[in-house]
């Protein structure tokens, strides 16, 4: 009898208890809808109560064991054999048959045998809880689990390999060892018959006419319905008071459109299963910028106040220049700019054209202090965490692709070129533009650094992501489908950077940590380029307008070929960490340049770093590239209460290297992200963590001034990020004085 489905639990299972309809189920003492007398929540909560001055990490392992025994084992459907399991899943429409039929069943058994032999175990209660609560396939009535982690890995490998047995085995190897983690929608939906999209993040834009505004609102409804977080660029819309052709009236500006979008997301919420999520972007030089920011304030007029819609601002270099000089700035009418320049407002380089626009009397404009606007941005970031900041000139100056980046997404890491659409009175596309869907995946830094073949691992990940971009069908928004078909874009990122630093005794933001980050992302860049070139060669196909890119003329590679020592490890400690991992030489880059110029690249974009939510817990690693918040993180889970998650690899040995983000100089965080950004063709979700009372000595400019966080602090950090080449800033998160945490969270000096 196959013991499929149980190896991932360890050796807890000795017998199966009863049989029904050819399917074995474990005891029916409880169901997932009626869990009584379980102990794992209480055990997990005890982590937060120090014992003799120590953090009782053993309680987390006890909670994990109790969860597997009391919840998972008791409520998992088990089958006589692997074939019986797949017959049941196929017959009851739990999984698709198309991908399954591409494999001989003997191979599927071989794949499972390999996966089971890896003896996968969750390392924490949070990892197991998150997987079974959010990712594991369940019966239609919600009473039983139909898969464990091995099963989910197997479906991902089989589905994304698309019949290629060698690739399926390679993918299974990457995912079971948690070197690669597909993004949540891909990992969750792979192979399922009744599923959502494999991507769940989209970028669309509106131009300055009622037809396109209407189409944008419809697109927001449709994308929210299928589960997407939606970024929307409104910078092209005329400002409040601008004329409307053919009628004696004036435009209402962007705020009413924002309200319509917020209501759209609220309405289109997957039958109440999730809150629709969207972000709107506006240029800092748009005449409605003050009203745009004011709509998010707590004391805003209820008619205009935005409660759930996120805000982002695109900021050209000219704004930083004017603010630094303490000069006035002009806000320009998008209607007039488009009329004069013949293209929508977002597509005009304001830094380059600013003086010409100021001098042009045919462009309406209004004036305000650049520093006053800078202060307003800081005030709102203190109050709400918004707006996100996209340094739009930085993004475009570093962009090797022909075209213009005009916005970002809900998490601020996707930065790709777009083109506007033109819609007629019948809501039909007279000109189909290019918009964006986000196709994400992450490397787990700790585990990838232990890989036998770094390059082969990355190539395997690229091929999995390529399947997603090739099979993404978002026909409800043709501009997104069009952009995806032309660009074949992917976004491979990373998680677990702070885990890696702590495990290897490096302080976050130290010169050694920056050196490591530089080389790690250089390797991701090199190997994704190699993989993309290989796929282009195999398929005899490149992304649209490859011939107009800096890849095609070879200039993209010059900085690597002309390198001195900046792209080799500087410190002995870092050299030792990369021992056994080949770091590209100048000749390697020269050879890659020639190969790319000859055969091209399949993917327009390859890299981006997402914020990594629950998926990082399943990987038992720290999220994204930012520092931890607490050594024992407190999570509020719906219906359950608080769950505590100890930092990965937390021990007396690593304790000194796990400093809270709130106690870390954010310039160190920016320095780490900047080391990665120079190799990342898109962006990164960079969050700033601030305390409302700044720790003494953290920022030298606070000496002799108030220790309370001010807008000046945020202004200094935003400008520092801009000067370091950071393309975007995600949230500003503030830990306020009245939200202190208790127990081990507060006892940061506890030993283990």
UniProtKB/TrEMBL annotation:
EC number(s) on file: 1.17.4.1
A GO MF term: ribonucleoside-diphosphate reductase activity, thioredoxin disulfide as acceptor
GO biological process terms, semicolon-separated: deoxyribonucleotide biosynthetic process
Sequence intervals crossing the membrane: none
CDD domains assigned to the protein according to its UniProt record, in alphabetical order: RNR_I
Key words of the record: Allosteric enzyme, ATP-binding, Deoxyribonucleotide synthesis, Disulfide bond, Nucleotide-binding, Oxidoreductase
Entry-linked PROSITE patterns: RIBORED_LARGE
Keyword Isomerase: no
GO cellular component assignments: ribonucleoside-diphosphate reductase complex
All residue ranges annotated as the Ribonucleotide reductase large subunit domain in the record: 589-611
Cited NCBIfam families: NrdE_NrdA, RNR_1b_NrdE
Function noted in UniProt: Provides the precursors necessary for DNA synthesis. Catalyzes the biosynthesis of deoxyribonucleotides from the corresponding ribonucleotides.
Family under the similarity heading: Belongs to the ribonucleoside diphosphate reductase large chain family.
Name of this chain's protein: Ribonucleoside-diphosphate reductase
């Amino acid at each position: 009898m196959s013991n499929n489905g149980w190896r991932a639990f360890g050796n807890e299972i000795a017998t199966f208890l009863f049989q029904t309809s050819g399917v074995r189920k474990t005891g029916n003492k409880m169901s997932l809808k009626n869990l009584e007398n379980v102990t794992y929540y209480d055990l997990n909560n005890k982590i937060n109560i120090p014992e003799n001055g120590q953090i009782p990490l053993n309680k987390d392992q006890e909670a994990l064991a109790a969860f597997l025994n009391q919840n998972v084992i008791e409520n998992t459907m088990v089958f006589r054999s692997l074939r019986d399991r797949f017959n049941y899943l196929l017959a009851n429409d739990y999984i698709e048959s198309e991908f399954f039929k591409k494999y001989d069943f003997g191979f599927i058994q071989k794949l499972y045998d390999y996966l089971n032999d890896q003896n996968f175990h969750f390392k924490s209660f949070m990892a197991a809880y998150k997987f079974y609560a959010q990712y594991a396939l369940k019966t239609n009535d919600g009473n039983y689990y139909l898969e464990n982690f091995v099963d989910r890995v197997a479906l991902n490998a089989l589905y994304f390999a698309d019949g290629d047995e060698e690739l399926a085995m390679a993918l299974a190897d990457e995912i079971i060892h948690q070197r690669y983690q597909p993004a949540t929608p891909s990992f969750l939906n792979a192979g399922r018959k009744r599923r959502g999209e494999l991507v769940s993040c989209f970028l669309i834009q509106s131009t300055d006419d009622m037809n396109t505004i209407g189409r944008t609102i419809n697109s927001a409804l449709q994308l929210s319905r299928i589960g997407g977080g939606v970024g929307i660029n409104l910078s092209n819309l005329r400002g409040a008071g601008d004329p409307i052709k053919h009628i004696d009236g004036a435009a209402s500006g962007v705020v009413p459109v924002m309200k319509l979008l917020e209501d759209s997301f609220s309405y289109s919420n997957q039958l109440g299963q999730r809150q629709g999520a969207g972000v709107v972007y506006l240029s800092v030089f748009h005449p409605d910028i003050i009203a745009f920011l004011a709509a998010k304030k707590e004391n805003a007029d209820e008619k205009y106040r935005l409660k759930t819609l996120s805000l982002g601002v695109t900021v050209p270099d000219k704004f930083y220049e004017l603010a630094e000089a303490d000069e006035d700035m002009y806000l320009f009418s998008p209607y007039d700019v488009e009329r004069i320049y013949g293209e929508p407002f977002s597509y005009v380089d304001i830094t380059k054209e600013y003086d010409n626009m100021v001098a042009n009397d045919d462009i309406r404009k209004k004036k305000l202090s650049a520093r006053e606007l800078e202060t307003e941005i800081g005030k709102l970031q203190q109050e709400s965490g918004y707006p996100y900041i996209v340094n739009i000139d930085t993004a475009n100056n570093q962009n090797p692709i022909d075209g213009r980046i005009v916005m970002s997404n809900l998490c601020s890491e996707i930065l790709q070129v777009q083109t506007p659409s033109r819609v007629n009175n019948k809501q039909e596309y007279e000109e189909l533009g290019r918009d964006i869907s986000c196709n994400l995946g992450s490397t787990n830094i700790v585990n990838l650094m232990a890989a036998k073949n770094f390059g082969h691992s990355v190539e395997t990940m690229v091929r999995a992501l390529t399947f997603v971009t090739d099979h993404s069908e978002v026909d409800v928004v043709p501009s997104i489908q069009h952009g995806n078909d032309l660009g074949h874009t992917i976004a491979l990122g990373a998680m677990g950077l702070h885990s890696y630093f702590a495990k290897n005794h490096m302080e976050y933001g130290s010169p050694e940590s920056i050196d490591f980050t530089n080389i790690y992302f250089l390797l991701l860049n090199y190997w994704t380029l190699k993989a993309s070139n290989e796929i282009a060669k195999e398929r005899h196909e490149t992304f649209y307008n490859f011939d107009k890119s800096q890849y095609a003329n070879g200039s993209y590679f010059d900085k690597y070929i002309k390198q001195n020592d900046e792209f080799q490890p500087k410190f002995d400690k870092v050299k030792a960490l990369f021992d056994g991992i080949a770091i590209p030489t100048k000749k390697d880059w020269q050879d890659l340049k020639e190969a790319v110029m000859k055969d091209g690249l399949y993917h327009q974009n390859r890299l981006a770093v997402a914020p990594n939510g629950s998926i990082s817990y399943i990987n038992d690693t720290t999220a994204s590239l930012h520092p931890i918040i607490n050594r024992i993180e407190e999570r509020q889970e719906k219906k359950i209460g608080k769950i505590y998650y100890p930092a990965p690899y937390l021990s007396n040995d690593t304790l000194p290297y796990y400093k809270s983000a709130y106690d870390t100089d954010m310039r160190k965080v920016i320095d780490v992200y900047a080391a990665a950004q120079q190799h990342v063709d898109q962006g990164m979700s960079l969050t700033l963590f601030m305390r409302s009372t700044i720790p003494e000595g953290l920022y030298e400019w606070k000496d002799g001034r108030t220790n309370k966080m001010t807008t000046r602090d945020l202004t200094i950090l935003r400008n520092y990020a801009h000067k370091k080449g950071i393309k975007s800033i995600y949230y500003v998160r503030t830990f306020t004085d009245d939200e202190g945490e208790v127990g081990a969270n507060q006892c940061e000096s506890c030993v283990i």
